[in-house]
Design brief:
The protein is about 70% helix and about 0% strand. It has about 170 residues and is an all-alpha fold. The relative contact order is 0.08.
């Protein structure tokens, strides 16, 4: 799609395209807010259940994206947390969902409850299941962010590794 530069428009076209700010009275603001609320309610009422579910999955994707792009690690926002939320949005029982992505229900439960980190193939299966709405690399980066935090904060693991390295050098 080509866009025109501003210099390609005439002064008349620019003047007509400019929207002047309007000062509204309190009563006019109240009426505008009421009209907006009615329009939103009408739009919401026209949405199908499938549309609502798609919107919720997209919201999950954007929350996941924001979290991954941020620097901070939140121990509550694990792979299991987002997976549990995804299954909840779909409104499916875990057994049904586990069958759909071809994993055992107990394995899925271990991922959801953060007892086990998922293998790489889980990210791909989740991407395919979401019809590419939530990319596999988002799920993968979520696991990597969790692993990175564990490595940075696990002093016991670091001490064991330091002892291992010193014993190998000596």
């Amino acid at each position: 799609m080509k866009t025109k530069k501003i210099t390609e428009y005439s002064s008349q076209e620019l003047a007509e395209a400019y929207v002047f700010p309007v000062k509204l009275t309190a009563k006019q603001k109240e009426e505008a807010a009421r009209q907006l609320l009615q329009a939103r309610a009408k739009t919401q009422a026209e949405l199908t259940e499938s549309d609502k579910q798609t919107s919720r999955v997209l919201q999950l994707r954007f929350r996941l994206e924001d979290y991954l792009n941020g620097e901070a690690f939140d121990p509550a926002l694990t792979f299991g947390h987002f997976l549990k939320e995804y299954v909840s949005i779909l409104g499916k029982k875990r057994k049904v969902f586990a069958d759909e992505i071809s994993v055992d229900e107990t394995l899925l439960s271990q991922f959801v409850n953060a007892h086990r980190l998922p293998p790489d193939y889980m990210a791909i299966r989740l991407e395919l299941h979401s019809h590419n709405v939530i990319p596999a690399h988002y799920w993968y980066r979520l696991v990597e962010k969790q692993k990175e935090h564990e490595i940075k904060t696990n002093k016991t693991l670091r001490l064991k590794e330091m002892k291992f390295v010193h014993s190998r050098v000596a």
